[in-house]
Amino acid sequence: MNATRCIKYGMISALLGIFVTGFYLSTIGEEKTAPGANPKFEWVAAQREKMREDAKGGHKSPARDGEIAPIGGSRQQLNASERAHIFYYPWYGNPQYDGGKYYHWNHEYLQHWDKNVAERWPKGRHTPPDDIGASFYPQLGAYSSADMSVMRQHMEWIAESGVGVVAVSWYPDGLSDGQGHSWASLIPALLEEADKFGLKIALHVEPYKDRTVTTLRADLQFIQEHYGSHRAFYRIQRADGRRLPLIYVYDSYLIEKNEWQTLLKADGAKTIRNTPFDAVLIGLLVKNEDRYMLQESGFDGIYTYFAAERFTYGSITKNWPNLRVFTKRYKMLFIPSVGPGYDDTRVRPWNGENMRGREDGAYYRRQFNAAMDVGADCISITSFNEWHEGTQIEPAVPKTDIVNNFVYKTYNQGPNQYLALTRSLLSEFAPPTSAQ
């Protein structure tokens, strides 16, 4: 959710008083630790193999609704599922790993499109490490996504949360959002680290400059050729027996339906169908009418991304039963997105009306229940670490920025509250099934 694109979207959607968001970054560094070098790797791998066997027999975790089991303490059955996907951002940078600079932690204050309103709010950028562009403060501090110890810790936390698929924000090599630089070089390392914990990596393709169906076709070919053979690269079983990569396409509405049809219809001039780089493409539903555009374009499914109830048509949980009926009718995947809350006021200080409080986990639980009640094919979680929008479940700690007299928000039940709550909620989600 590129900042410039967000401003344009906000202008179009001024009646909603919101923006569609985003920010990114990083580069790769440090050598990898061999599997088995840490006993945690072996434990998690063993647990996830056991979970797969249990899932075949319909086993469910003993965790009950409302229980918060300890993370990193008592080692309990995780009952993870590859039907649980979580959006992950490898865009953070700090001076130690990223050429002497901070990226994303020093996010600018985005200005309101109305100049009269903009005048009332702060301008400039945040100044890490104590002052960051987020309402919560990470347990790992103002980290770099290129720090292998950070990447490894993230994968361990995600595995322990019960999530099976990490949907990584992706730009083609050399491209990025306006807040950072290219982090495409991190994907191989993410695949390696994910594999150590039994996780899979899917890609969340961002709306880079001059993105077209022609460039996307080349992207899909690149993705298959460079990542497709890796054991941790996520593929989904189709009704015809093929296992194809699942790719999220953010802001898919930016490309016209007739253009998408050339790529996604079997008779399209640039079709990927039944080629070596065919894929299951999941498009973003923002407005009610987007369902028709996505279905007629040839998309294989829809997702809703936004974690703020009432932010868009797709983020309103009471609309999900109707969307589920629609996707069943057309044999599309329905992947609603759930989140623990929303708070982007440290980068959009004027956007308080769209804040959604966490309610000590009750908000997250309601969203999860809504997704499970409609029989979602998969559940996507927004997010593991989108700190700017306050949707993260990554551990956060108490912190005060003394210089600016700002006290960061905390999780009421400790840093790992939302990892544990995710695990508890996913224990109620049915075992994996084949996609249509």
Task: Write structural notes for this entry.
The protein is of the alpha/beta class and 436 residues long. It has a single domain (24-426), classed as TIM Barrel (Alpha-Beta Barrel), CATH 3.20.20.80. It is 27% helix and 12% strand. It has eleven helices and twelve strands. It has helices at 3-12, 39-56, 115-118, 148-161, 187-196, 213-227, 257-264, 290-297, 320-329, 362-373, 417-426, and strands at residues 81-88, 163-170, 200-205, 235-237, 243-249, 280-284, 301-303, 333-335, 337-338, 379-381, 400-401, 406-407. Strands 1, 2, 3, 4, 5, 6, 7, 8, 9 and 10 form a ten-stranded mixed β-sheet that branches. Strands 11-12 form a two-stranded antiparallel ribbon. Strand 11 (400-401) and strand 12 form a beta hairpin. Helix 4 (148-161) crosses helix 5 (187-196). The chain is globular, with a radius of gyration of 20 Å. Residues 2-48, 50-80 and 432-436 have low confidence and may be disordered.
Key words describing this protein structure:
436 residues; two-stranded antiparallel ribbon; TIM Barrel; 12% strand; alpha/beta; 12 strands; 10-stranded mixed sheet; single chain; globular; disordered C terminus; disordered N terminus
Distance N terminus to C terminus? Answer: 30 Å
State the helix count: 11
Query: Roughly what fraction of the amino acids lie in strands?
Result: 5-15%
Roughly how much helix do the residues carry, as a percent range? Answer: 25-40%
Biggest pleated sheet: 10 strands, mixed
CATH class: Alpha Beta
Number of domains: 1
The rough form would be described as globular
The strand count comes to 12
CATH architecture call:
Alpha-Beta Barrel
SSE pattern, N- to C-terminal: HHEHHEHEHEEHEHEHEEHEEEH
Protein name: Glycoprotein endo-alpha-1,2-mannosidase
Pfam families: Glyco_hydro_99 (PF16317)
Membrane topology: Single-pass type II membrane protein
Organism: Plectus sambesii
